[in-house]
């Protein structure tokens, strides 16, 4: 795998061993980040990469100008690979990078920002396909409770065979894109009426 563009563009990164991790393909990452750049949510953003795996999505965001990325993954092999990738890229210990070895829902419930300036402008969720729809709905509900800045975008990557995520109150889908077996669901905070 490689980082597509930005200050780290072209640099290679590793993927965690085993079948549990399913890294986002270069083609899907390139299309996703083109959309996100068009939406103007990357430069200076706080980004959450909630099912991090190798960290490729968050690394792509950082490479393209994100101010901070927080990666969450409970699996030791994934966290080891992410930390190796950060070291390879010269980012180990960088204040812009936060690595959290815990499940996404746990992180969201325990680390909720108290300062609105610390809210995320972009949340990237590429959960393993075995994650149930109910578990994904719980993570999205935790994310919608005080984590998202005005104008934020939430991206959920799932298999074409998976149903549309159950969006919690406060989030609404505004776009869907299909890339072969992969579907990207994009949502945003609902504006109060």
Reconstruct the topology from this structure:
Layout: H1 26-39, E1 46-49, H2 56-63, E2 68-72, H3 76-88, E3 97-100, H4 104-110, E4 120-125, H5 133-144, E5 148-159, E6 171-179, E7 182-189
Parallel strand pairs: 1-2, 1-4, 2-3, 4-5
Antiparallel strand pairs: 5-7, 6-7
Organism: Kytococcus aerolatus
Protein name: 16S rRNA (Guanine966-N2)-methyltransferase
GO molecular function: methyltransferase activity
Give the tags:
193 residues, alpha/beta, Rossmann fold
Structure description:
- Strand 4, helix 5 and strand 5 form a beta-alpha-beta unit.
- Helix 4 runs parallel beside helix 5.
- Strands 3-2-1-4-5-7-6 form a seven-stranded mixed sheet, with helices on one face.
- The model has no long low-confidence stretch (mean pLDDT 93).
- 28% of the residues lie in helices and 25% in strands.
- The termini are far apart.
- The protein is of the alpha/beta class and 193 residues long.
- The protein has one domain: Vaccinia Virus protein VP39 (Rossmann fold).
- Uncertain runs with pLDDT below 50, 5 residues or more? none
For the termini, the CA-CA separation is 44 Å
* Rg from alpha-carbon coordinates: 15 Å
Counting structural domains, the number is 1
Structural class: alpha/beta
Biggest sheet overview: 7 strands, mixed
Strand tally = 7
Quick one: CATH class? Answer: Alpha Beta
CATH topology: Rossmann fold
- Helical content band: 25-40%
CATH homologous superfamily caption: Vaccinia Virus protein VP39
**Residue-averaged pLDDT:** 93
* Order of helical and strand elements: HEHEHEHEHEEE
* Second-tier CATH architecture: 3-Layer(aba) Sandwich
Strand content: 15-25%
Q: Number of helical runs?
A: 5
Strand order of the largest sheet: 3-2-1-4-5-7-6
